[in-house]
Amino acid sequence: MLDICLLGTGGMMPLPYRYLTSLMVRYNGHSILIDCGEGTQIALRKKGWSPNPIDMILFTHYHADHISGLPGMLLTMGNADRTEPLLLVGPPGLTKVVNSLRIIAPELPFEIKCKEIQGPEESFDAFGLRIDAFKVNHNVTCYGYSMSLDRQGMFQVEKAENLGLEKKYWGRLQKGEVVELDGKTYTPDMVMGPARKGLKVTYCTDTRPTDSIVENAAGSDLFICEGMYGEHDKLAKAKEHKHMTFYEAATLAQKAQVKEMWLTHFSPSMKKPDPFMDDVKKIFPNAHAGKDGKTMELDFSE
Amino acid sequence: MLDICLLGTGGMMPLPYRYLTSLMVRYNGHSILIDCGEGTQIALRKKGWSPNPIDMILFTHYHADHISGLPGMLLTMGNADRTEPLLLVGPPGLTKVVNSLRIIAPELPFEIKCKEIQGPEESFDAFGLRIDAFKVNHNVTCYGYSMSLDRQGMFQVEKAENLGLEKKYWGRLQKGEVVELDGKTYTPDMVMGPARKGLKVTYCTDTRPTDSIVENAAGSDLFICEGMYGEHDKLAKAKEHKHMTFYEAATLAQKAQVKEMWLTHFSPSMKKPDPFMDDVKKIFPNAHAGKDGKTMELDFSE
């Protein structure tokens, strides 16, 4: 139901073997991209995907490695004759940043809408997905994002029969509608069981560990979190540059009781993240080093 | 003496197997980059080179595929603690474009100087190389660049002896100095033979064929020219978008009597340029399809 692809896993600068961190989420024919650094359109193309189905790009913040690929991405969409509007979402200042970057992409055959997130948290709907933006702690305003797909409860046949409501009205209640009949009001909760577990993916990068991450990532099926450094002795450096070590990320995963964690946004100085994973798994066993193009298909459990 | 590397050969958008067109010229410890699209810093890294030795970036024009990699390149230089100033050169409007793009690269530990080219032709010196910028014909103001390394004549021992000048002064004349002695003036031309053939590289992309290209590329050792389309029937499209076919580029090479030509700036729709090269060589035999990372070392002939 939710198709996840980590297009890149790098921080700071793109490398020949590691594109900059960004995430593609595909749901029900819609695509949402989080962050768009230099080369993100190449990573997308490498997966064999077109940028045209992207309905929305969420930006965590406006450091170049998270947005420098935007003008090129917009032009590639334009060259493919896109006409559907594109929604860009990000911290305050988005319109100014986008307009400034568009000095090299001034003419596009589609409309760009900008939505600037306000306050510490903001929720909005996107094609049936709930997106929760939450402020994290970097050296510029930066947000993490959770994407949740809720799942309603089971239809309770017994309850419907007990209501004495004719079968032909059941479907409307199941779809969430209210039925008025013979002076009586029937509401969905009268026939639906408790909401079932939905799907949830949380993404945060370029931040120190925060309570907001633990709260918003709570119970996620997949938690994608920055891990700039794997070396234990780089904690001071992580604090100085407002990033995290692998172990701090794993501690967040453990506190938020997520199902699975992927690390990303590796420092260019790190050749491979794998040698550090044994230590990471001691804190959070279901932790994995992100890899460019790593995918997951999340389905409702039976 | 002149190290040439075509970092990418693509036009419009970077592809997983083809970076955007840009050229690195290395001479006497200095490096000059022409154009810097999205991913150029990845292509550079792929060659194993750092961006830090780059002293100057020349821009042909400000379409995104020729400049979208600038903010990332600047930040990568800054992250490597560069302190030497960087000179950017390009058509009018450069300062505005650079400042606008720097919204995502505002703080750098080195100075950026911008030089805007004026008029149809402009020449300037760069570390002993002569650079000739010449206007070409695209749908925005666009320049081509020739880089020339002049070579003085041979020292003529016989002439020096006939002058009756003591041997210890010969070296000064050979270095181009004037020697005043016993009321007589000795100038270099009295002992130096005619200037010998130097080295010349010409680069032009995003243009229709022009006389200015033929004039400025004349006698080049290497002529790197755009060829957006290989298919003969795409001539109308080339004219419409102010680009060239392979055959138009080859005709320029033939008219300019260059030694060797490389084609570049291939349309994303072109899988491989090679199938068209037989036809190209009928017009200009020493034509080659550019490849990402293609290099050449140009030395003075004996």
Report on this structure.
The structure is a homodimer of 302-residue chains. The first copy, chain A, is α/β, with parallel strands linked by helices. Chain A is 24% helix and 29% strand. In chain A, strand 5, helix 4 (94-101) and strand 6 form a beta-alpha-beta unit. In chain A, helix 9 (246-255) runs parallel beside helix 10 (277-283). The longest helix of chain A is centred in the first third of the chain and has 10 residues, at 70-79. Chain A binds chain B through residues 12-16, 37-39, 41-42, 45-46, 62-65, 67-69, 71-72, 75-76, 79, 96-97, 100-101, 103-105, and chain B through 12-16, 37-39, 41-42, 45-46, 62-65, 67-69, 71-72, 75-76, 79, 96-97, 100-101, 103-105.
What string gives the helices and strands of chain A in order?
EEEHEHHEHEEEEHHEEEHEHHEHEE
Interface with most residues: A-B, 31 and 31 residues
Which range does the strand content of chain A fall in? 25-35%
- Give the N-terminus to C-terminus distance of chain A in angstroms: 13 Å
Largest sheet of chain A: 7 strands, mixed
Helix content bin of chain A: 10-25%
State the assembly state of the protein chains.
homodimer
Q: Ranges of chain A with pLDDT <50 over ≥5 residues?
A: none
| Class by SSE composition of chain A | alpha/beta
- Please state the average pLDDT score of chain A: 95
Number of strands of chain A: 16
Query: Taking Cα atoms only, what radius of gyration of chain A do you get, to the nearest Å?
Result: 21 Å
Helix tally of chain A equals: 10
Reading side by side through the largest sheet of chain A, how are the strands ordered? 6-5-4-3-2-1-16
Shape of chain A: globular
